[in-house]
Design goal:
It is a single chain. This protein is an alpha/beta fold. The chain has a domain at about 1-5 and about 60-170 and about 205-235: Rossmann fold, CATH 3.40.50.150. The protein is about 25% helix and about 30% strand. The protein is built from six helices and eleven strands. The protein has helices spanning about 50-60, 75-85, 95-105, 115-125, 145-160, 205-215, and strands spanning about 1-5, 10, 45-50, 70, 90, 130-135, 160-170, 180-185, 190-200, 220-225, 230-235. It has an eight-stranded mixed beta sheet with strand order 2-1-5-4-6-7-11-10, with helices on both faces. A three-stranded antiparallel beta sheet has the order 3-9-8, with helices on both faces. The radius of gyration is 17 Å and the shape is globular. It starts with a strand and ends with a strand. Residues about 1-40 have low confidence and may be disordered.
Length: about 240
């Protein structure tokens, strides 16, 4: 679901993935702002905390208006209102839900070129140099290497030069299960963080791994949070 302007939405149809034996279209994808992942029905109590990464992200677009921002965490009214009230356009994709819909539990399919291309069409089907910033949050850790490389490469194409991306990574790269969070923007330097389940990561990264992941970007900057997350600002 995209939000190109305040309170206006565009619904994009989602076709069935290739190779599943049917040509019937899947139901149209609609925003699931806080839909829990498998295995958990409700969110935990939210906590509001400072965010150096978010502050850094907004510092680079402060004083500007009419920018185009992409958020991959799914639409929440709080984030839609915050971004659009600053005079920017927000596009929102429920990245994790589309990942589940596209691949299910079969992580091996994340190396299938046809399914990778299908996933990219559902999530990042935008013109080159379309966005001035991307809020990735904690979603890249759930992608297997082939899919992750394709997603990062597509992100590099759809952002403008000198734009910024904000991504979160768990600081312990040996975890077998990690929390899944919803992030709501409360201020330019504060987030409301709510755990909405747990999930086995596809891969975790140390600092050097994150730097390699964004090796084709201009720079990477780290901030450590009390949720044992590293907030990472990436400059395109």
């Amino acid at each position: 679901m995209k939000f190109p302007g305040p309170l206006r939405s565009l619904l994009r149809g989602r076709n069935a993935p290739p190779g599943n034996g049917t040509a019937a279209p899947a139901p149209a994808h609609s925003p699931r702002a806080d839909s829990p992942p498998r295995g958990r029905a409700v969110e935990d109590s939210p906590a509001t905390r400072p965010s150096r990464g978010l502050e850094e992200f907004f510092s680079h677009i402060r004083g500007q208006s009419g920018l185009t921002i992409l958020e991959l965490g799914g639409a929440t009214q709080q984030n839609v209102s915050f971004i659009t009230n600053l005079g920017h356009r927000l596009y929102s994709e429920d990245f994790l839900q589309i990942l589940n819909d596209s691949f299910g539990e079969d992580k091996a399919d994340q190396s299938n070129p046809g399914r990778i291309e299908y996933f990219l069409r559902q999530t990042l089907d935008y013109p080159d140099e379309h966005f001035d910033g991307v809020l990735i949050w904690d979603l890249l850790e759930y992608l297997e290497p082939a899919l992750l490389a394709a997603v990062v490469d597509r992100l590099r194409k759809v952002v403008r030069p000198n734009s910024y991306l904000l991504a979160f990574f768990h600081s312990d790269d040996k975890l077998e299960v990690v929390p899944i969070y919803t992030f709501r923007i409360m201020a330019m330097n504060a987030l409301q963080v709510t755990q909405r389940g747990t999930r086995s990561p596809a891969q975790l990264f140390n600092n050097r791994g994150v730097e390699r992941l964004f090796g084709k970007f201009e720079s990477v900057k780290f901030f450590l949070t009390r949720e044992r997350l590293r907030e990472v600002i990436v400059k395109a």
